[in-house]
Design a protein that fits this description.
Layout: H1 7-31, H2 35-71, H3 89-122, E1 126-131, E2 136-139, H4 141-147, H5 163-171, E3 177-184, E4 187-200, E5 203-212, H6 214-256, E6 258-259, E7 264-265, H7 269-299, E8 308-311, H8 312-329, E9 332-339, E10 344-347, H9 349-366, E11 373-381, E12 387-393, H10 425-435, E13 439-444, E14 450-455
Parallel strand pairs: 9-11
Antiparallel strand pairs: 1-2, 1-5, 3-4, 4-5, 6-7, 8-10, 11-12, 12-14, 13-14
Helix pairs in contact: 1-2, 6-7, 8-9, 9-10
Amino acid sequence: MTFFKSFRFGIIIRVLLLAVSLLGLMYLVLETSYYVSMTILGIVIIGQIIALIKYLERTNELLTRFLEAIRYSDFTGSFRNHGLGSNFDELNKSFNEVIERFKEERSEKEESIRYLETVVQHIGIGLMCVNGKGEVVLLNTAAKRLFKVATLRTIDSLKSVSEKLYQSVKKQKGGTRSLIRITVQNETLQLAMYATDFRMRDEAYKLISFQNIHTELEEKEMEAWQNLTQVLAHEIMNSITPISSLSGTVKMLLEEHLDPEKEEVKLNTETIKDVTDALNTISNRSEGLMRFVNSYRDFTQIPEPSFEQFSVGETLKRTESLMRTQAEEVSAKIEVDCDPESLELTADPHLVEQVLINLTKNAIRVLEGQQDGQILLKGEIDESGRAVIHIQDNGPGVKQAMKEKIFIPFYTVGGNGEKKGSGIGLSLSRQIMRLHGGSLILKSEKGEGSTFTMRF
C-alpha cells in the first residue's frame, strides 16, 4: 500500500493518463470527425499537463519554504510528508535536521551575546563604542558611573561631560594610548584611554576604554617623590656637610689668629696650608654640587624624539666603535650581532644611540677589574614581530632589591673599580624609551651578568 501512496506512483499514473489521452486525441484527429470530442479531450490533456506540473512543483515548494525559513530566520515550522510518499521522508528529515541545527546555532549565539553583554557591563573599566556616524552604540555601566550620565547618544554628547574629554576622544586614533586629566562634577579623573578600530558589516567602529588611575598615580607620584627626595637629600648632604664643616674650621683658624687690638690676622705656614686645603675642598665640593644640579637639569629637559627610519646594525656598530677604547681600558670586548642584518627602526636615531652609549658605559663600569669581560650589542625581532635591542654583559649582575632602584634618578651603584656614575644614565634611558612608546627592561641574576632590553 505504501507504493500506491508514493510520489513515484503518482507521477506514473499521471503520465499514463496523459499518454492515453494523447493517443485518444490522435485517434480522433486521424480517424474521425468528432470535433467537439477533440476539443473536450484537448482541454482534458491541458488540464492533465497543468496537474502534472503542479504535482512536480510540490518539491520546489518544499525547497522554497526551506530556503525562506533560513532567509528570514523562521525556525518555528517543520517539514512533514503531506501525501508525497516515502521518497520524501529523507528530504524532510534532512530539512528538519538543518532547521534544528540552525536553531541550536542561534541559541548558542544568543547565549554568547548575553554572556558578553554581562561581562561588558560587569567589568570596572569604562567602555564606549562609536560608529562611523559618531553614534554611541555601546556605553557600559562603568563608563556611565565614571562620567555620571544615564546615557550618551552621540559622541557630541561628551561635551556636556567635559569639552577636553570630547576633544581627546575625537582625536584618539586606533591602537594608541593616552592620558587625560579632567574634572567631572568637581571630581578629578586621571583617565588612561586606549582605542581600537574595527569593522563590522562594512561599517567602521571605534572602541575606547577608560580607566581612572588617579589614585594609583597619586600613590606612585608620592613614592617617586619620596625616592627622589631621598636621593637628592643624600647627594646634597654629601656636598653640604663637608662644606659646612670646613667653613667652620676655616672660621675657627682665622679667629684663633686674629689680633683684636691691631685688627690683623697673623698666620703661620701650617695654618695657611690648612686654610688653603679647606678652601680647595670647599671649591671642589661646590663644583660637584653644581655638576649634580646640571645633571638634574639635563634629566628634566629631554628633547622630543624626531622619528626617522634607520638601520639598527649600523647604529650598533657605531656605538661599538665609540666605546671600544673605554672597553679596552678595562680589558673588555664589545661584540655586535644583528639578525636580520637589514633590521630597521622608526625612531630618533640620536636618542637611541644615546641610550646605547649610556647602557654600554654602565656595562664597562661593572666589568672593571674583571677578567674576560664581554659586552654584546644585539638587535633582533622578538616573538611578537617587534624590533628589540639587547645590551648584555657577563658582569657580577644586580641584586634583586636593586633592580628597580637603579632606575631612580641619581641613584648610583659603584662598579668593581673606583669610578662611579652620575646616577641619571639609566633613568634618562628609560625616559627616552617611554618617549618612543617603548620600554627598557633589566634581566639580571647575581653572578650571572645583566641584560638590558630596549623594546620598541
